[in-house]
Amino acid sequence: MKKLTENIYYIPHKSDTDRPVIGLVNGSKYSLIVDAGNSPHHAREIQKEIENIGVNNAKYLAITHWHWDHVFGIHYINLLTICHQLTDKKLKWMQKLDWDDKSLDERVASGEATEFGSSMIKKEMPSREGLILRNADITFESKLEIDLGGITCIIENVSGDHAEDSSIVYIPSDKVMFLGDCISPDSSSGVRIYSHKVVDMINKIMKYDVDTYISSHDEPEDKLELHKYFKELKDLEKLTKGIAGIEEAIERFKNEYLRDPSEDEIDTLQCFINGNLKG
Ligand SMILES: [Zn+2]
After folding, report:
1. Three-class secondary structure of residue 17 per DSSP
2. Dist. CA 22–CA 118, nearest whole Å
3. Domain 2-222 carries which CATH code?
4. How far is the CA of 163 from the centre of ligand 1 (A)?
5. CB within 5 A of ion ligand 1: which residues?
6. I want to staple 27 with a disulfide (CB 3.0 to 4.6 A). Which of 129, 149, 181, 244 is the partner?
């Protein structure tokens, strides 16, 4: 558990089994945890880390989106769980699914799940026997504000390509925003996709005054760094409008910026092309 600001702590992400960042917002009355961890084991580690820094007023758990690595620990964290209404719908659907190896393999074969996600689930939880999935206690339609005592959290649905239910957790007093995976492309089909949705999402995020952004599978980033990336995403979305091939996109980029695109920029261009092809 690392201290980020006066009231905010986080547990860094761990890529070997795709564990996302976990946040802790510490108010004088209550504390709120951001995301539940990706297994019962992970949830217990989170509880231990919170105990170790002497925080004993955890009351709320806010979920950024429905993907397994953010929600499998809900039952085990065992707090009042808050999420967007679409997230809750997905959680209820997930409760009906089977999570044994055979069922996972079948969903990968039919394209309902990705090979990456399935392999990470198996690695994090070699056995899923007795795994209990739970849905939320409190849902919201677009935005929710919680007073933790001396500190307020705003949870807002921002959508984007990665998941329609993606919500951010913003703490105005500390100018910190937990982003979940919202700025990542859609990778649910195995192909990475960006669309015009990314522009609406950026506009929703940019309404807030933020010094530090935390994406779930990355290190914290400062305002300058992330705003530069947002500008790049908006520019490349515009540049790739109506284009269906990467060669044409690169040509248009060279004409516009009088230089070759970097590898990262080519990667982003390809995501938007994939979005155009999907339609
Ligand atoms: Zn995700």
Report:
1. helix
2. 21
3. 3.60.15.10
4. 7
5. 67, 181
6. 149
Q: Domain map of the chain by residue range?
A: 2-222, 240-279
CA of 193 to the centre of ligand 1 (A): 13
Adjacent-strand bridge partners of 14: 19
Distance from Cα 208 to the centre of ligand 1, integer Å: 22
Distance CA 147, CA 141 (A): 18
Residue type, 274: N
Q: Give the pLDDT confidence of 197-228 residue by residue, as tens digits.
A: 999 999 999 999 999 999 999 999 999 999 99
CA 181 vs CA 52, 104, 174, 178: distances in Å:
27, 22, 21, 9
pTM of whole model > 0.90? Answer: yes
Query: 2-13: per-residue pLDDT in tens?
Result: 999 999 999 999
CA distance 278 to 269: 14
